[in-house]
Amino acid sequence: MELDNTSTPLNWAPTTEFAGPEVEQFANALDDCLTGRAPGYDARERLLALPRIFHKNATQRLAKLRPGRLRTGEDMDMDTDELDNESSHDTEAEIQRLEKEIQTWDLLQRVLPLRYSDAENESHVARLERVADKPSRATTLESFFESDPTARERRAVLQWLQTSAASGPDIDEMTRELQRNADRGDIIAHGWLHTRSAIKMKKSVTGWSQLLDQQPGNGTSNHLTSSSEPMVTQLDPDACTRQGRKLQPQDEYFERAIWLGCFEHLRRGSTAATIQEWCQERTEVWRSVSMSGLLLPAQDGNETATDLSASSLVLWRRMCYALATQGGTSDHERAVYGVLSGDIESVEKVARSWDDLLFAHYNALLRTQLDSFLLNQCAGGEAAHLTQTFPSLNAVSAHGEEAGVEKRLVRQLAARPSVADEAKEPTKALQASIVANELHQYLSEQGRHLASPSRGLDQPQYFQHAQTGGLRIIAHVYVLLSLLEGVTAISIEQRKTEDEIKAQETIVAWYAGYLRRQQLQELIPLYSCVLTIPRRYEVLSENLIEEEETERRITLLKLARKANIDTMEYVRTQANIFYQKVAESPTATKGAPAVFRILEESTPDSQSGQFIKADFLGDDEEQLADSLDEYLVRSLEWLLLVDEAWPDVFSMGVKAFVFFLRNMHLDAARRLMKSISFSAILAERFGVEDESMANSIDFWAEQLEGLPGNVQASPLQVMTDAQNFRDLGHLVQALDSLETTGAFATIAGDADVNTKAAQWRPELINAVKITKESMQPLLHNWMLASIQDGNEALAEIRQMYLPETILAYVKSLHFAGTRLTRDYLLECMDLATIITERDADLEATFVEAKRVRELLEAFAVSSKALAMAPGERTGAPTKSGAKKLREKGWTRDIWAALLDGVSNGQLHNSRIISLITNRKSAHATVRADKAGIPWEYFNLISHGFLGKGEKDEQKVAEGRRNYDAALAERILSAEKERPELIVLAGWMHVFSPAFLEPIERAGVRIINLHPALPGEFDGANAIERAFEELKAGRLTRTGIMAHYVIDEVDRGAPILVQEIEWKGEGLDELKERIHAHEHELIVKATAKVAQEIVDGRGS
């Protein structure tokens, strides 16, 4: 299965934005909608209710931030408790974002019911038939909109634009400055007060009682305004236009204020009653009357003029058009009549935003359609007379071909320089795509942008990863559309290409990743259910795999079933995904597998035999170092939680074991063996204790009965997979127990261990017992059945592991025989007999591996030891590996050397006051506990300073600095005893100045040990690099040093230095010799610096 970054939200950078309660509230609304899905109309109604719910939610959040500024007509039946729990980010940016979100949901709740209708149901047809029967009512807006679906949608968009504008500034606030300049004070009177007063004054001065323009001579030539412009001589509304004269400046301001208010009322879709009330307060009722012919208000059912004839309305529109294009004293006066007549130019002239421009065009288109409808209702040649005599704008013709007019209009407006930046704002671009009915194209491009952010650097109209609020909206829009297509006859899906589907689903994939980062994994199945297969399972896998707790996993599976997700296919796909990922990872072996060796490169002797390498399986941590290995094991744990998926546990488990073993991921193999035990599966799922039942095909046939049809495995295949899974687990279990017994041999020379033989001998006895039990399946035809059937992978594993494992087993028996009882040496001889039996399969394995000689030498050494064995020893050893012995404090590491230095007097003037470790399972803590020394665990990743697997260099550096500073603060805390000297005993973390500088200011010294001479081989792998130089003859010696710690790695002033001559030994032997000297040097260096500190006190 091929995956790319578009389906791997784990790869996406996390956002720092905190998820507000709206995230869960939106999910709850969606869940309520999907619960108990009903076919047909009910399901459609449930889905169409979602935008209304989301719209109300956003409105409530805005009201919380900005009380008292509610949108016109909003239902604010708020849940007070819900609002109290919402986080409040009272910033202007958040307010603006919420306003845009409200507008988006408002637009969707208006247009989606029209686009996803019941396929023009019969009730519409019946109503249209009634309209044809009763032409006397044909002038009603209801009949017009019932007859024209395009008009219905345009009205919906127009009402959305009106409602959005209604949330703007208060109209009285907008006109306040103009009203103040009108200088009317508290006077409530009709008309132009200052102009009327000037006319009266003129008549009084000249003694003329008639109209001024009838005065003899040139009486009006010096009739001027206070600004020295010709002033009107009459006070009717058309005087300024007719006479070409001005009003007094104060009345000019009054006019502009009134017309601005009237325009805003029309722009906001106010009803006739609201406009009349506003005008009446200003004693200008005539203006509301002039606008009352045919309004298109924001709220349905408030239209006027339903009792006027069609011809009257047609004529009224044309009179308004004349005023918009030829009359008026101000832009807003012309814009008022431009709105009423459907003119575009006059309305655009006062437009301030993209919304205003769109309003101008949609208003014009809708009024042109309405005009055509009314003309069809006019009698005889009346329509022709009206259209020929009185011109008007035909916006439909002006916009060209009807098909695609919305798309062209939106693109044209976006190209206008005055609103180009606004049109590129992501929410506005989303709204534009809804208006233009290009939402699917927008979603596709948004998905591509999320998948490849670099392609959107010059595309600001799409939401960026950090804009989580906008992407939440986008995700819910996509989910809503996908579900609507599923319950209505209208399907965009059939018209989508595979690439478009993939791109759009990336939006949900991103949102699922966002939910995971916000610890809201329980919501992910709800959103994943709308994705196509297999994308659905891929998104679930990528986002739920990190869940470690079994109960949480079970809950998530229940939620997936509730969302109608096939959990069987989900867990199957998840396992396949992560197997593919590990198989394609850089750590996967591409050619021949590595050579498996766990025995030390040394000559065995009859007393101790040959040592097994310590910790060859790796650290037994809570999580594997390789995250992909960890996820693969977890995917198998998920498989176990689905009842019918147990056959896949065996088949995928075999593949995982083979990969881990072939690629030497031994820690992962051990983790798999312990997490998914074959014996536990038999006992817990089938109630069987006997592992030999795995060899019965009848047993597996019985278990397969009753499983669903999507389980296609045959009894024979299940039996084979189960046997292979069991046998590979036996190998890993054997290696684990060999590591444990080998650990005893590694530290056998430790005097401290020997003095506590009474404690460790029972442990060793138990470890050898477990080793013997786990080795038995490997000694007789291990994996041969499948190998003979042609399984080359298992043949490779057998040849790779079996010889070395058996040799290690011989060494373990040898060691136990020399330390415990000679019976173990006798068992070595029995093992030799088993291998050399006539029908034995092991001899051929050693022959093929060309290791027969090694085997014979191992048995010879054991035979010699048996001959020399003095007699019986009793007692013996459990636990599993060197790490478990270290838990008891049996070790020869640097920390132990320092503890011993204090106890034996080498550090006579020193006291260890505390231990800090950055490894959770560090065995040093056990020795600290035994010595009564306080210790604490403080880790860069576990304590939240750096995300696991973080690759960003800047974030890594910042995390390390913060960690170093916090560590210094802990050490220097006034609540603790402050040290005078810090010794880095195996501390594998390079300190930055954030740690070193405060420690230095506090007068505390820091020393470290480095396995190289000053100036040679700074940093990691110093011994390995020195060994290469020694082998090449460029050096004859290496060395070690203890030095002070500075911010340059291994460049601090040396305290003690010791050269070590090379004796021609191998790398491992050289390491052992160097480490032995290191333990002595660190104690001496610590003693030297401690003495200097003590001496310095006296001075």
Per-chain topology:
Blueprint lengths: L20 H14 L6 H25 L14 H5 L7 H24 L6 H12 L7 H7 L1 H18 L4 H11 L11 H14 L32 H5 L5 H19 L4 H10 L3 H6 L19 H17 L4 H11 L3 H4 L5 H24 L4 H8 L5 H4 L6 H10 L5 H4 L2 H10 L3 H13 L16 H20 L10 H20 L6 H5 L6 H10 L5 H13 L4 H17 L43 H14 L5 H17 L3 H10 L2 H9 L10 H8 L10 H32 L4 H4 L2 H19 L8 H5 L3 H28 L3 H14 L5 H8 L2 H17 L13 H5 L7 H10 L11 E3 L6 H8 L3 E3 L15 H19 L9 E4 L8 H9 L3 E6 L11 H10 L5 E8 L9 E8 L5 H32 L1
Parallel strand pairs: 1-2, 3-4
Antiparallel strand pairs: 4-5, 5-6
Short characterization:
Residues 896-1086 form the Formyl transferase N-terminal domain. The protein has 1099 residues and is mainly α. Helices cover 58% and strands 3% of the residues.
Explained architecture:
This protein has 1099 residues and is mainly α. The protein is built from 49 helices and 6 strands. The strands form 2 sheets. It has a 4-stranded mixed β-sheet. A two-stranded parallel ribbon has the order 1-2. Strand 1, helix 45 and strand 2 form a beta-alpha-beta unit. Helix 32 crosses helix 35. The two termini are 74 Å apart. The N terminus is likely disordered. This is Nuclear pore complex protein.
